[in-house]
Design brief:
globular, 70% helix, Arc Repressor Mutant, subunit A, 2 domains, Rna Polymerase Sigma Factor, Chain: A, mainly alpha
């Protein structure tokens, strides 16, 4: 059986793949505070965040086979899975002229489950928490406009076209702002 609290994230995922409920419980204990905080920031509603958090762990249980074990990037996969599920919920709650696809297995596999590029550096929870202050400092150095575009994209799920319409600026300008923001954030992180 083993001591689950001592297992790394990838080992827990392998156990979950084998349908080990104790491994899922350990993953929940380890990640639920972080994921719940992210969900509250996106949904702005504690009850909705609780519901989505439980849905995320059901998805993990059902779809762990869609995780790319070769990347080993459990942290990024969990954060993006949670973000994708929250953004989908947010979009479904917006009054919109666009009809959203039915939420079914095919939709979930394509739009909710993250597919990570193998070139993304693997990150674990302990490392992510240790670099959090540096990330916060890097974000703080961005302009208000850059922070807002980043917020619209990551926390509200707007694509470039939607940001363009919301801000009433050309899509090329939005694209430039996003690219400048990403480069500035990277430079701020590297430069400290």
């Amino acid at each position: 059986m083993g001591n689950y609290t001592e297992m790394n994230d990838l080992d827990l995922f392998e156990k979950i793949y084998q349908k080990d409920l104790d491994a899922l419980n350990e993953l929940y204990d380890r990640y639920s505070p972080l994921l719940f905080t992210l969900l509250k920031k996106i949904t702005k509603d504690e009850k909705t965040a609780e519901i989505i958090l439980s849905e995320v762990f059901v998805i993990i249980w059902r779809k762990v086979n869609l995780f790319n074990f070769k990347t080993g990037n459990v942290f990024a996969w969990l954060v993006l899975l949670t973000r994708n599920r929250a953004i989908d919920s947010l979009k479904r709650s917006r009054p919109s002229s666009e009809e959203l696809d039915n939420y079914d297995d095919k939709f979930e596999n394509f739009f909710i489950i993250p597919y990570l590029d193998k070139r993304i550096d693997s990150l674990d929870l302990k490392t992510a928490l240790s670099i959090k202050p540096k990330m916060e400092q890097a974000l703080e150095k961005l302009t208000d406009a850059q922070k807002y575009v980043l917020h619209l994209s990551f926390y509200e799920g707007y694509n470039l076209d939607e940001i363009s319409k919301k801000l009433n600026i050309p899509i090329e300008t939005v694209r430039d702002k996003v690219m400048t923001t990403v480069h500035n954030l990277r430079d701020n992180l590297i430069g400290g």
